Amino acid sequence: METIDIHQLNETVAQEAVFLQDLLAEVNKVIVGQEKLIERLLIGLLADGHVLLEGVPGLAKTLAVSTLSQAVQAKFQRIQFTPDLLPADVIGTEVYNPRTNEFTSHQGPIFANFILADEINRAPAKVQSALLEAMQERQVTIGNETYKLEKPFLVLATQNPIEQEGTYPLPEAQVDRFMLKVVVTYPTRDEERLIMDRMTGLALPTIAAVTTPEQLMRAREVVRKIYVDEKIKNYVLDIIFATRNPVENGLTDLAHLIDFGASPRATIYMIMAARAHAFLQGRGYVSPEDIKSIALDILRHRVVISYEAEAEEISSEEVVRRILERIEVP
Q: CB under 8 Å to 295, separation ≥6 — which residues?
């Protein structure tokens, strides 16, 4: 059995994570507050997972992604999803050239490192599936040609929870492809005062490129090496199986609140995101706190609550919180 040198891992993580300080300092020149949002974006980047954001307009979701892409020196594309959007508007299409009498491939905005899919639930199912296929397979087929997408590749999709008229809600199977679902909240009074002063001043803050996509890819390799103890793995399994079989896991009172539990993808993402969280903390091993920190964002869109829960005004978040409170921590 392979022996793990935790001390050596800690040193490696400390060395590779140095660039994060400069990256966060640069992002914080523009973004006020929203530490959780920035942290979740970095977890998505480091763990190679996509992020679904839910929040009212004007909470700096777009600004956060574009600022991060500038600081990483990566290519950023924003796609505004609308009911008349076509799959070709996202992935690209073949264009006929009358001079050569041939079709040539024209690549769409999906060919970038950071994709902001703004109001993803406003586009019809064909467009959503075209984007989500690219997210899963990391490749796009235009005509007879298949193109690999650039690395790193992060899709940040936003949803507006206020207005549901004229929208196409994402099916559960497609929502499951997002590693994290983050609920973005309003800033505090002090934060909003700072936003007001910063954004209405004479000169808007500028962002410098302080790292590269190559640096991020190296960091990903280190993240995958972060140690996960057997007890932590069993703790994750306890949480996931409690969402599927509450009665068998001693949570009988929650059984009537859950229709469907989390998929195996949740188990995988829980470990990957916990490793990335540990990396952000400068540790070479995953602790129970890493699991508890990211569990809600991993599970809130994967636990499908029952009509009874809705009638009692109990959300999936509340169900997940109760499970985390009751499952024994190693």
A: 239, 270, 320, 324
Q: Please say whether the beta carbons of 288 and 312 come within 8 A.
A: no
Q: Are residues 11 and 121 in contact, defined by beta-carbon separation less than 8 angstroms?
A: no
Domain boundaries, the chain: 21-197, 226-326
Residue with tokens 């470990």, as numbered in its chain: 271
**CA-derived radius of gyration, the chain:** 21
Angle at Cα 257 formed by Cα 252 and Cα 263, nearest 5°? 95
Tokens of 259: 């229709």
Locate 32 and state its tokens.
């006020």
Q: The domain 226-326: what is its CATH number?
A: 1.10.8.80
pLDDT digits (tens, 9 = 90+) for 219-263: 999 999 999 999 999 999 999 999 998 888 788 888 888 888 898
The vertex-155 CA angle with 27 and 221, nearest 5°, equals 75
Residue 1: predicted pLDDT: 36
Query: What is the mean pLDDT of the segment spanning 42-53?
Result: 91
> What's the distance, CA 225 to chain centroid?
21
Predicted local distance difference test score (pLDDT) of residue 268 = 94
**Terminal Cα-to-Cα distance of the chain (whole angstroms):** 23
Evaluate whether 115 touches 89 at the Cβ level (below 8 Å): no
- pLDDT tens figures, 101-145: 888 888 889 998 888 888 888 888 888 888 877 888 888 888 788
Total H helices, total E strands in the chain = 14, 11
Q: Beta partners for 94? A: 105
Please tell me the total number of residues recorded for the chain in this structure. 330
The three-state DSSP-derived secondary structure of 175-232 is HCCCCEEEECCCCCHHHHHHHHHHHCCCCCCCCCCCCCHHHHHHHHHHHHHCECCHHH
Among the listed residues 109, 102, 65, the one whose alpha carbon sits nearest the alpha carbon of residue 86: 109
Domain 21-197 grouped into CATH 3.40.50.300 = yes
Model confidence at 3: pLDDT above 70: no
Contacts of 227 (CB under 8 A, 6+ apart): 4, 6, 9, 284, 285, 286
